[in-house]
TrEMBL record, chains A, B:
<protein>
    <recommendedName>
        <fullName>H(+)-exporting diphosphatase</fullName>
        <ecNumber>7.1.3.1</ecNumber>
    </recommendedName>
</protein>
<dbReference type="GO" id="GO:0004427">
    <property type="term" value="F:inorganic diphosphate phosphatase activity"/>
</dbReference>
<feature type="transmembrane region" description="Helical">
    <location>
        <begin position="395"/>
        <end position="416"/>
    </location>
</feature>
<feature type="transmembrane region" description="Helical">
    <location>
        <begin position="689"/>
        <end position="707"/>
    </location>
</feature>
<keyword id="KW-0813">Transport</keyword>
<feature type="transmembrane region" description="Helical">
    <location>
        <begin position="205"/>
        <end position="229"/>
    </location>
</feature>
<dbReference type="GO" id="GO:0012505">
    <property type="term" value="C:endomembrane system"/>
</dbReference>
<feature type="transmembrane region" description="Helical">
    <location>
        <begin position="483"/>
        <end position="501"/>
    </location>
</feature>
<keyword id="KW-0406">Ion transport</keyword>
<feature type="transmembrane region" description="Helical">
    <location>
        <begin position="513"/>
        <end position="534"/>
    </location>
</feature>
<feature type="transmembrane region" description="Helical">
    <location>
        <begin position="44"/>
        <end position="64"/>
    </location>
</feature>
<feature type="transmembrane region" description="Helical">
    <location>
        <begin position="423"/>
        <end position="444"/>
    </location>
</feature>
<dbReference type="InterPro" id="IPR004131">
    <property type="entry name" value="PPase-energised_H-pump"/>
</dbReference>
<keyword id="KW-0472">Membrane</keyword>
<feature type="transmembrane region" description="Helical">
    <location>
        <begin position="351"/>
        <end position="375"/>
    </location>
</feature>
<keyword id="KW-1133">Transmembrane helix</keyword>
<feature type="transmembrane region" description="Helical">
    <location>
        <begin position="70"/>
        <end position="88"/>
    </location>
</feature>
Length: 805, 805
């Protein structure tokens, strides 16, 4: 403590009174000297790498060619998009990093982010390995399904396949997170630097950096599943005499989805707690108590706050979207396979591989969208800053139009069958339903969170009567905002189901069977622009960080203005992405639920078509499922609250012990705040994460035993099914509530900061800041974690199904 | 405006600087000159009344005697308890009303409460009449069940019965509300006056006043159902050749439950909005902005706040508990009848009338509990104030012990059957499960809302870091507090079901059938001390009001101390009653749900035993059900927020326009605040109320049409079943969350006010006040309305079932 104080008292800090020269904190050094794989890969040994890469590619294409031409197409598109993403990085990295004070700040952020990432993923990987052992153990002692047995699959093979898929999913999910953070900690300073020149250029850099990680994340999800699929296909000799049918193959991939969602859950929890604890803590003392602006260099928690944007928003969202896409692809593949089997379609591979193709096209059309955002304005520059939202929206519209075209094309290519010649058209309409649903979700979220519309203005008005009415109004707004999305989702489930149902596909008894697959196609439609959506999402935290760097390095007001506009747009895109994510999660959970019932039926060797909530135990399962959502949200929020209190106490301590900070005479100890937040969020992520993983297993296992003693067949599986279903419904509503309330509070504050209702510094603004603080853990910790939780519950029950039987 | 100012400037107000002599407001006079039925009934024409009463009693007993000796027993107990309640009123009214300044305040409160009650129930009764017409119309054009047809029941009779039951239920519910309010506006001033003498006497008056309305409410629910049952029995010639079976009779009573819950919903909504809008509005300007204490006579909204306690807590809670008990008795009677029919029990009346007997005993043992609280301390007075909670708790323990005894007795008396000689013992155990559940609920609520325990202390600690962390911590606490009650409910549903299942009762195929009835008996066990619980609940607002009167009439500190202690105890008992209410609602909803399925099966003439949530439309029904809860809560909270803002603006206006108020030189215009709150809450209660009533009907009807066109049988009924089930689960969780969070915030503030963490006036206290403000609409508007909503959904679907088929 003493020599820190001495450091702080050194002369130089007093010389340049508006900033501190060295933001890099010594205290954090032990953590940050990290082996940077990516740098090694990109720097040295380029030739060896190239040879290895070509060899690998050759093997992959060989296996792909032996599986299906569709797989070869998917591989090609993915590899092209990887090449494109390498071009995007090169382009972003070639931009200048600005003056040294910016670089120093950026370095401090990068050190903090990479240090936390390394520790966090160290913890996560240990837990993943432990879980892999558990899965291995379960699968070695369980029975196989009759189909699997008849195809000569052995227990050990099945166990190995599931564990390998789980670990690969976990690894890819980790890489997806890392990529998101890797580019954002490099792009932020380049955006700040570009903001000194032109708003348009800054926008372009942020979009391209976001585009890089979006292409990598989506491409990796697609190619990972495609490689697994092709490998299993060739290895198990699928479709040859006496071995497995191709329609049963997708069920072997569920481990991948579970691995992905397992890592994403902890990434989102840890990152979410980190970012919001730092943010809330910094704001409570900085903005509210000391009255200094956001991202002011005098605030000891400011670097932790900026680090949080990267580990919370970039890394976690990368992992989240990765697992969303992976889970949805796998569940749609399972449903496609099941339907193809029931309808005895001659070549089922089109139905099974359809999701992979849709996402390959997603990569193509999103790239077009990303590149449509140019560095120079189209006409002569009239106003200094164009509306960046309009530019992004234009790109989105282009992507949407292209997606309608490619979706129609794909359905005609892959879903055409002699048995029902017009079925593909019905499925194309299902896709359209999905695309419209996505658009409606984006619009509804905008309506409830943008201050151009009524709800946020009413919320801002409620702040004039104090903190209390602001919170009441925000909570009501959030609760109310669940209604329209639920109506949209309900409409799209029912209509997609009926479009599929009437597609003309029938099983051997003549019953229509396409309904569920129709819902799957609608989900695919919704996700058909995922890469562009993810680009817009990643754009937000990069712009936010750039703004922070600009503020901390005390750039002129005009530069700050540019990054402020970008930041505000980023807030809106972040909110809309969440709406989009929860909408697709709602649709996907319904698919995963069906896949679970198929899986149970296959293992139990009896039909499992109903979940009857009139049975008391099943009703209890539902109660427990909904309760899980409430408890999980509680723990996620209180984790932020507790960690934020630690930050507040530390920041208060520094302000008291180092009175010179406020006059720029002493340097705050940024490193200590970073270290406190990092260790606290690692500690706090365990409890909610463990709850999510342990409770469905425990409930299923307990009721299995109860069912055994009371002679109730399949009781465990039924109770888990109800738990899953109720948790999904409650989770969707709770996530919508948390996300929208948080977003609305944030923007109500921003609206008041534009000068409305008294503007900055008024009592009304103070009340709005309280709302914003409350909204932070809602919208960035608990809400997004619930998206992941919903899908993780579905995948964990799929993988763990054998122990409920 | 001008002459108001002139009035305010009159001399006398300046003479006695600490209070205002005339609290009765002229502005409100037109509303308050109300025809007071009760006064007329109790005052003049006593002999005529007596003769009429005896005549009525004679008829009732004659009908009862023709039905069953059990009915005669029920009648006798109810009438005795009515006599007892008349004694209690006389006793309470015989107490002195204290000095004139107290009487004046009390009169102003009474005028406000009765005026609002009259307008509110005017609106409600118009809506009830409209709904009665709709029901009549539906029942005139629907088919009867085969059993009903074979028993010679005609459509017009069935329609008349349902409508008559509905209207009687609505009327009794209204009277229950009125009785609660009637006594509380009279007892409050007597408690204040007694508090000048002794804490113990004040406590006794409050308890006996609460006991009066509790006995009336419970007694009326029981006798109302008993009279309906006996009348229908005699009128329809039940059990005679060729007419209706007694086991089908309870299904005719559902209208009564629906009428009760319909009125209770609007009573709770209107009253809840009134009380909390006034409270929040008064606190926001008074406490937070002007820094004057709670219930200070200078606050223009103070009379509205005190009126709110009566119309919100007393009247609404009376109606709420009335409908709880009515709905639960009816559903248990239906289940008892169904089971008796399946098991071909020789004399089914024991099983059907069991709930009525349990509640008759409830009246007896609760009276013992109420009278066990004596006016004088047992030993010599050592401390000036004993812990009133301990006294109430002692009474509760006595009641609980007695209830275990009477419950065992009743099961042996009524549920003994030759077919399964040990069944009664299993059912007695079910009752014990229920009693333990009630006790556990009370304990859990206390743990989460009492500041003697960890959670509230943590919440108070979170207030030290500001408004934001206080809210985050409160929300997490509320969300977390749902876990234990859900586990308890789950355990009791499963164990009561299994106790019933293994009771030895079997249907004609030898399948065990007692499971559901076991759950019903557990619910009865939980409610077997309802009258005592209601007494403790009513005690709260009376004490609160007494405190307000003491404060406003500027009594010495020692008197205020006594009412403060009573008020704090009232807060705890209020919170625990809510836990108890939601627990019993959870159990009861499961019964009502089964009754609904029986009803649909009877009408559709085919088995309806499953609600399969794997069907997309049924899943959508579930989604819509959960959404209904969120939207309803949103609208209930925002209604309070909006009305509170009106109050805040009015109070601010008065403080600005009448600067003399703060120095007691000008009198505030209480009447205007009362009028504003009254008209706003009547306006605001319509939207959420209409949502609750219209949405299940609309959803059921829409999906019935969809089912008709797609050939899906019973689709409407299935979707409504899922909607009901999901709404119940989400409703339980949401209500637990809202109630507990609100209670905890309230007590965290109280804890700080004891001097902890800086005490009154500190920054920490301000943050805690914000939390308390937010918690107000949570715990007293949205939360309790959800209890009613859950049961109203169940009864509305029961009554409206014909239009979903």
């Amino acid at each position: 403590m003493d020599d820190e104080l001495e450091n702080g008292n050194l002369g130089p800090y007093a010389d340049r009174p508006r900033t501190f020269p060295n933001m890099r904190s010594k205290a954090y050094n032990p953590l940050v000297r990290t082996l940077n794989i990516f740098r090694i890969l990109m720097g040295i040994n380029f030739r060896v790498l190239l040879i290895l890469l070509f060899l690998g590619l050759g093997v992959v294409f060989y296996i792909g060619a032996r599986t299906s031409p569709i797989i070869v197409f998917v591989f090609s598109v993915c590899i092209m998009s990887f090449l494109l993403s390498i071009y995007l990085t090169k382009w972003v990295l070639s931009k200048d990093e600005g003056p040294p004070e910016m670089v120093q700040i950026s370095d401090a952020i990068r050190d903090g982010a990479e240090g936390f990432f390394r520790t966090q993923y160290g913890t996560i990987s240990k837990m993943a390995l432990l879980l892999a052992l558990v899965i291995l153990f379960i699968y070695l002692f369980r029975n196989l399904t009759p189909q699997q047995e008849s195809s000569g699959l052995r227990r050990s093979t099945s166990a190995f396949i599931t564990v390998a898929a789980f670990l690969l999913g976990a690894l890819c999910s980790g890489i997806a997170g890392y990529v998101g953070m890797w580019v954002s900690v490099r792009a932020n300073v380049r955006v700040s630097s570009a903001a000194r020149r032109s708003a348009r250029e800054a926008l372009q850099i942020a979009v391209r950096a976001g585009g890089f990680s979006a292409l990598v994340v989506v491409g990796m999800a697609v190619i990972g599943i495609a490689i697994l699929y092709a490998t299993f296909y060739v290895w198990l000799g699928v479709d040859s005499q006496g071995s497995m049918k191709v329609t049963d193959l997708p069920l072997l991939l569920v481990g991948y989805g579970f691995g992905a969602s397992f890592v994403a859950l902890f990434a989102q929890l840890g990152g979410g707690i980190y970012t919001k604890a730092a943010d809330v803590g910094a704001d409570l003392v900085g903005k509210v108590e000391q009255g200094i602006p956001e991202d002011d260099p005098r605030n000891p928690a400011v670097i932790a706050d900026l680090v949080g944007d990267n580990v919370g928003d970039c890394a976690a969202r990368g992992a989240d979207l990765f697992e969303s896409i992976a889970a949805e692809i796998i569940s749609a593949m399972i449903l496609g396979g099941t339907m193809a089997r029931h309808c005895k379609i001659e070549d089922p591979s089109g139905f099974i591989l359809f999701p992979l193709v849709i996402h390959s096209f997603d990569l193509v059309i999103s790239s077009v969208g990303i590149f449509s955002i140019r560095g120079k304005p189209d006409s002569s520059l009239k106003s200094p800053i164009e509306d960046p939202m309009a530019i992004l929206q234009k790109g989105y519209s282009l992507t949407i139009v292209l997606s309608v075209l490619t979706f129609g094309l794909s359905t005609r290519w892959l879903l055409y069958t002699e048995r029902a010649p017009s079925a593909w058209f019905n499925f194309a309409l299902c896709g359209l339903v999905g695309i419209i649903t996505a658009y409606a979700f984006v619009w509804i979220t905008k309506y409830y969170t943008d201050y151009k519309h009524e709800p946020v203005r009413t919320l801002a008005l409620a702040s004039t009567t104090g903190h209390g009415t602001n919170i009441i109004a925000g909570v009501s707004l959030g609760l109310e905002s669940t209604a329209l999305p639920v109506l949209v989702i309900s409409l799209s489930i029912v209509s997609a189901f009926w479009l599929g149902h009437t597609s003309g596909l029938v099983d051997k008894d003549g019953n229509p069977t396409g309904g569920l697959f129709g819902t799957a196609v609608a989900t695919m439609g919704m996700l058909s622009t995922a890469a562009y959506i993810l680009t817009m999402d990643m754009f937000g935290p990069i712009a936010d960080n750039a703004g922070g760097i600009v503020e901390m390095s005390q750039q002129p007001e005009s530069v700050r203005e540019i990054t402020d506009v970008l930041d505000a747009v980023g807030n809106t895109t972040k909110a809309t992405t969440k709406g989009f994510a929860i909408g697709s999660a709602a649709l996907a959970s319904f698919l995963l639920f069906s896949a679970y019932m198929d899986e149970v039926a296959a293992f139990a060797q009896e039909p499992f078509k109903q979940v009857d909530i009139a049975i008391p135990e099943v009703f209890v399962g539902g109660l427990l499922g909904s309760m899980l959502i409430f408890l999980f949200s509680a723990w996620a929020c209180s984790a932020v609250g507790r960690t934020a209190q630690e930050v507040v106490n530390e920041v208060r301590r520094q302000f008291i012990e180092r009175p010179g900070i406020m006059d720029y005479k002493e340097k705050p100890d940024y490193g200590r705040c970073v270290a406190i937040v990092a260790s606290a969020s690692l500690r706090e992520m365990i409890k909610p994460g463990a709850l999510a993983i342990v409770s469905p297993i425990a409930v299923g296992f307990l009721f299995r035993i109860l069912g055994y003693y009371t002679g109730h067949l399949l009781l465990g599986a039924k109770v888990v099914a109800a738990m899953l279903m109720f948790a999904t419904v409650s989770g969707i509503l709770m996530a919508l509530f948390l996300n929208t309330a948080g977003g609305a509070w944030d923007n109500a504050k921003k609206y008041i900061e534009t000068g409305a209702l008294g503007g900055k510094g008024s009592e009304c603004h103070k009340a709005a800041v309280t709302g914003d603080t409350v909204g932070d853990p809602f919208k960035d910790t608990a809400g997004p974690s619930l998206h992941v939780l919903i899908k993780m519950l579905a995948t964990i029950t799929l993988v763990m199904a054998p122990i409920f039987l």
